[in-house]
Specification:
Elements: H1 2-29, E1 41-44, H2 46-60, E2 66-70, E3 96-100, H3 101-111, E4 122-125
Antiparallel strand pairs: 1-4, 2-3
Helix pairs in contact: 2-3
């Protein structure tokens, strides 16, 4: 009787592991198209944009389809930021965000656009990147 209880439990576990594995394969195959946790836009400034571009090769080396970008080590420390103008409040820059591989390359291209204005902050749309 003990054997009959153990076999269905093992079969259930195997089926669960198989189903989870299948879901992961489907999720990773379409991660660039449907990255639910990926940012649709980021807020940046010239300092963080320069840091991102400097670290791009290192960030791009990660093997996953979704990339976590952490620029917290780039943010200036001990420097008092200028007060925003009363007419337009500057949004707080994003120093940590998750983007897809496609968005990573797209963000690099957008930040390298000649004449882009990043200060005091700029909102970079990533939902059009795919």
């Amino acid at each position: 009787m003990r054997t009959s209880v153990t076999i269905p439990v093992l079969s259930w576990r195997a089926a669960t592991v198989g189903l989870a594995g299948s879901l992961l394969l489907v999720a990773s195959a379409s991660a660039d198209e449907n990255c639910g946790l990926c940012a649709k836009q980021i807020v940046t400034n010239s300092e963080l944009a320069t840091c991102f571009l400097d670290q791009y090769d290192q960030i791009a080396k990660t093997g996953s389809t979704a990339v976590v970008v952490d620029l917290s080590s780039c943010a200036s420390r001990g420097v008092v930021e200028p007060l925003p103008s009363p007419s337009k409040a500057a949004a707080e820059p994003d120093v940590q965000f998750m983007i897809s591989r496609t968005q990573l390359d797209c963000l690099k291209k957008k930040l390298e656009t000649p004449g882009i204005v990043l200060d005091p902050t700029a909102i970079i749309q990533l939902d059009s990147c795919g």
